[in-house]
Amino acid sequence: MSCNHHPDLSTLLNYGAGSLSDALAMVVACHLESCEHCRHTVTEAENIGMALLKEVSADDMSRNARDNMLAMLDDHAIEPPQVVIETPQKEGDIPTQLRPLIGQWFADLKWSRVAPGLKQFILPASDGKLRLLNIAPGTFMPAHGHSGSELTLVLKGSYSDELGRFRAGDVADVDPDVTHQPVADTHEGCICLIATDAPLRFKGLVPRLLQPFFQL
Amino acid sequence: MLVDLAKHQDKLLFMQLYDYFSPRIKSFLVKKGASAELAEELVQETMLTVWKKAASYDPEKATASTWLFRIARNLWIDRLRKEKPDLLSPLSVYPETGYTPNMDVCDSGKIKSALDSLPLQQAQLVYKVYYEGKTHREIADDMGMPIGSVKSGLRLAFDKLRFRMGGES
Ligand SMILES: [Zn+2]
Fold this sequence. Notes:
The complex is a heterodimer of chains A (216) and B (169).
Chain A: H1 9-17, H2 22-32, H3 36-55, H4 65-75, H5 99-102, E1 112-115, E2 118-122, E3 130-135, E4 144-146, E5 150-161, E6 164-167, E7 171-174, E8 183-184, E9 190-196, E10 200-202, H6 205-210
Helix pairs in contact in A: 1-3
Chain B: H1 2-8, H2 11-31, H3 36-53, H4 64-82, H5 108-116, H6 120-130, H7 136-143, H8 147-164
Helix pairs in contact in B: 2-3, 3-4, 5-8, 6-8, 7-8
The structure holds zinc ion (ZN).
């Protein structure tokens, strides 16, 4: 999979630093699985982190720490190297990072209907901040803006909005001042993983009435 | 160094790493808000992980110190998560796999001088992200700036830093 839309540089910086909220970090992790370009950028962010770590003034450890460490080395041998098997992602696969939460197949999920043509699945233990949206072909999402950050990763199909066309693997990193209205634009519809760290702001009365169904 | 360490199970070599990094990781975690006790506990855990996993370290994929940074970061985040039941615990958002880029060893002195050359506000943003562990939203609240400006400031800073580090711009 090659991607055309990536998380913002500032989002990758925070991810590398370990300063992204969990829901957003999960979306980035899923994108990294299929994007070498962003993996490289994250490594650069980690290098900056390391340089900053070396910069801090050393804070002495307590007196016994060193001896305790030495004792622990006697109890723990160096483990044999771990061989990491990388399974390539195909379009429509559930990303590896998500599988412990939702299993392997979209079809097995218990989707709940939000509006005509729109189903969602709130990821367990995410406090409603991480969800899958299943958008039927030709369906328009309600237009909305954000008061915080929103990251959307397309897992299957594609959608278009004011910002462009997003296919599987692509990430939309939407700034709070942007209002957009995605529409699923292929015959198979579109499944996205969406993380937010603040409530969406819907425009218009009907979408605002829908808000409770989004649990936002 | 880590490669030799794994080959010979060399404790003395390891303790050199320990003596250099442990007080720094401790101080780094205390800055992020850990108590001294917790910071020391995580330092020990980090260094023990470095020891146990030394044979899995691949110099093609990251510099040794960047690898160490990842381990400390991930342990810190795991710890934070345990205290917040609403988060994605116990799921990891930092996979061990997939970091394949081959990077030149980067010289932290270069990064330091690059940081010093940033405009004050951009340097502040970078420090808040790395030392205080703040999200864009939290920084926006702290500094009374719109999130969009926080992100664009960080973008500019990141670009300058990696350009100076010899990466792509
Ligand atoms: Zn990417």
